[in-house]
Write a sequence for this structure.
């Protein structure tokens, strides 16, 4: 994990029963703050609120940009986001005047 640039914590119905996943998330966050939640569930990705301590982390969403290019975005909220590559290089999500279109719009 020390050699990894980032970590995605995949949330599923059974993720909450893992004893190691929270430790790995905290380790990576403490190492370089490039840890994000990857919601894998039935809800719309941009509606992800997190649960318990997971809500303090940004979340990842794969969707098309306004230029119709499929990208991974790191979100703090539907209107606060940055493209994954920029986030990986240290840029934090920032506020945009409108929410990114949700998948399927």
């Amino acid at each position: 994990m020390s050699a990894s640039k980032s970590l995605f914590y995949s949330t599923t119905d059974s993720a909450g029963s893992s004893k190691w996943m929270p430790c790995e998330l905290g380790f990576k966050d403490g190492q370089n703050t490039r840890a994000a939640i990857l919601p894998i569930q039935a809800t719309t990705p941009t509606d992800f609120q997190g649960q318990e301590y997971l809500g303090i982390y940004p979340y990842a969403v794969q969707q098309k940009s306004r230029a119709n290019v499929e990208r991974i975005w790191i979100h703090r909220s539907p209107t606060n986001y940055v493209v994954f590559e920029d986030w990986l290089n240290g840029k934090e999500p920032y506020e945009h005047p409108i929410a990114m279109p949700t998948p399927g719009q």
